[in-house]
Design a protein that fits this description.
Layout lengths: L1 H20 L6 H35 L4 H30 L3 H28 L1 H6 L4 H9 L5 H12 L4 H10 L3 H10 L1 H7 L5
Length: 204
């Protein structure tokens, strides 16, 4: 699941940069679409990292994972938050002034944020996923995993729709396996309206 979330993050950062480089002079509607999609990405990524900082890292420290490594993870989250804030402000500027040059400057800011984000994601995948894999069948870890999910089913449905959008068949199969039963699958599909209405059309 962690890899699927990371793939969705990388995908949408790339999509956002490309979209900004394609904004035509005066295309306010397109600028607003990109802003909406970017805010969705920031919301999902922020939830993911806050859940790790609050729940996952302390748990891993208790299981003997290097505390210095996890402090690095938390510091990298802080650096990402700063980069996301700068990129968000730049995208807001495009909505306020939808000129190509403003959109290009925002794309450059997103590219800088991508470097910070990708460095962290690669670091986490390289050094944290192994101890996570060792805990796959641990009952306490399974209980903790529930705290890493969005609090409401509507937010969980939005997150699922976001992860599925643009995912390959392998990722989709993993997501289907993670949903506990057909009733929840149908319910999630019905509740993922926000993503389908507001965000998904941006990338079509």
């Amino acid at each position: 699941m962690n890899r699927i979330i990371h793939a969705a993050v990388r995908r949408d950062v790339d999509r956002t940069e490309r979209a900004l480089r394609g904004v035509a002079d005066g295309d306010l509607a397109r600028a607003r679409q990109v802003q909406t999609a970017w805010r969705n990405l920031v919301r999902e990524l922020t939830h993911h990292h806050e859940a790790e900082d609050t729940h996952l890292w302390p748990f891993l420290v208790g299981r003997g994972v290097d505390a210095d490594l996890l402090r690095q993870m938390e510091a990298e989250h802080g650096a990402m938050k700063t980069a996301l804030t700068s990129a968000s402000a730049a995208i807001d500027s495009v909505v306020a002034d939808p000129r190509t040059e403003v959109a290009t400057a925002a794309a450059d800011e997103v590219a800088r944020a991508r470097d910070v984000i990708n460095d962290h994601l690669a670091h986490e995948e390289r050094d944290v996923e192994a101890p996570l894999g060792d805990l796959h069948d641990d009952p306490e870890f399974k209980a903790l995993s529930k705290k890493l999910r969005p609090a409401s089913i509507v937010d969980a449905a939005n997150a699922l729709a976001w992860m599925q959008d643009g995912a390959g068949e392998r990722e989709r199969s993993s997501l289907r396996a993670a949903i506990p039963g057909p009733v929840v699958t149908v319910l999630t599909g019905l509740l993922a309206r926000r993503y389908r209405r507001e965000v998904a059309p941006v990338w079509r």
